[in-house]
Write a structure and sequence with these properties.
By secondary structure, the protein is α/β, with parallel strands linked by helices. The protein contains 14 helices and 15 strands. It has a nine-stranded mixed beta sheet, with helices on both faces. The longest helix is centred in the last third of the chain and has 17 residues, at about 335-350.
């Protein structure tokens, strides 16, 4: 039996880790989970698992040191064989640093990606360099990691080979323990039963028979001096739209207080703006079935939206550099540019309405767990 530790810090990563945790819990390995006490799913999803190691709450970048210290103590006392974490959050960077200093191998999910407008970019790349095992969401990201690790040059891709028996429909493994497995966030679409419209209507306050748009704006952390201007533009656009708006709260990056203060004001113009910061992930995904569009700068507007053939308007530079499906329309954070992108998204929905998702087929967690078991 090997001890596997998963780091989850909030709603932004639990959706990618849930099915991996379920499969590990059912395996012969010992699963442990480190999470802050203020984790969005602390009293819901996480109660399904036996070994939870809570840390002090994490509410801003000021808690980086405390979370690092808590992770260092837990990892030191428990002697894990491997630490598994996702992406680019500052909390995950703190946990990865603790693992490195204790010589615990790291398995990193969703590395190799680019988000030019956020400091997540540097944090993600730093975690990649600390990690020994890499599970990427697309082959281009696997190639990026191979180059970062010095395994190939920009014009040379003969550093990978087929391992069909391990990866099934995603048959590429790069040298250096880099596996292209797809995004585990899509596994909900193949493994969970999405809620029906009647079930959803009991959970939300707006009318699902009327058109609605899902909106979310996170701080663009490399442009914090423009946060107030950006949220004002964003809200002014939403207030001009005729659809109902479901406005999802921002994450805890610097600048979120400015966004929170603005979205909590009374808004006029559209039919109504409904605010929700605590949607569980199944409810959120189920809503994507019936939404007219997504608007904002969340990674969900790129990764999950394509699986629903849902048009998505991505605003500003936060997600610049990510691979995007044909359903994604990018624009600067300017009123007319956003309105034009919304019109283009509506036109795409009427004339095309279908796309392939470049982030996988919803079978990633099974692949990741199989590879982890082989490693251990």
């Amino acid at each position: 039996m090997k001890r596997i530790c998963i780091i989850t810090t909030g709603r932004w990563d639990i959706s990618y880790l849930y099915w991996i945790m379920k499969d590990l819990e059912a395996s012969t390995n010992e699963l442990s989970i480190i999470c802050p006490l203020n984790h969005h799913e602390f009293n819901t999803i996480l109660t399904e698992f036996e070994r939870i190691y809570p840390t002090k709450p994490v509410t801003s970048i000021k808690d980086y040191g405390q979370f690092y210290s808590d992770c260092l103590k837990i990892m030191s006392d428990t002697h894990f064989d491997i630490v598994v974490l996702v992406g680019d959050r500052f909390e995950c960077h703190a946990a990865a640093t603790a693992a490195v200093l204790l010589n615990i191998p790291i398995a990193h999910i969703h590395g190799g990606e680019t988000t030019l407008g956020a400091f997540d970019n540097e944090l993600r790349n730093s975690i990649t360099m600390m990690a020994q095992y890499h599970f990427t969401a697309a082959w281009q990201y696997a190639a990026n990691i191979a180059r970062m690790k010095g395994l190939c040059t920009p014009d040379h891709f003969n550093c990978f080979y087929k391992v069909n028996d391990i990866l099934g429909n995603s048959p590429w493994k790069w040298e250096g323990n880099i596996y292209n497995v797809g995004s585990p966030g899509l596994d909900w679409l193949t493994r969970a039963k999405l809620l029906s419209k009647d079930e959803l209507q009991q959970r939300v306050l707006f009318d699902l028979d009327e058109p609605f748009i899902i909106a979310c704006l996170h701080p663009t952390t490399k442009e914090l001096e423009h946060t107030k201007e950006q949220i004002e533009v964003f809200m002014s656009v939403l207030e001009r739209l005729g659809e109902q708006i479901l406005l999802i709260g921002s994450n805890i990056d610097p600048g979120n207080d400015i966004i929170h203060e603005r979205v909590c004001r009374k808004s006029y113009g559209c039919k109504e703006i409904f605010r929700d910061s605590n949607l569980d992930h199944l409810t959120y995904l189920s809503l994507l079935q019936y939404a007219e569009m997504m608007v904002g700068n969340s990674s969900s507007g790129i990764i999950e939206s394509s699986s629903f053939n849902l048009p998505s308007v991505t605003i500003g530079s936060r997600q610049d550099g990510r691979i995007k499906g044909s359903n994604v329309f990018t624009c600067p954070c300017e009123t007319e540019a956003i309105l034009t992108a919304i019109d283009r998204a509506r036109e795409w929905n009427a004339l095309v309405g279908k796309c392939d998702n470049p982030y996988g087929d919803g079978k990633s967690s099974e692949r990741i767990v199989k590879i982890l078991e082989g490693i251990l």
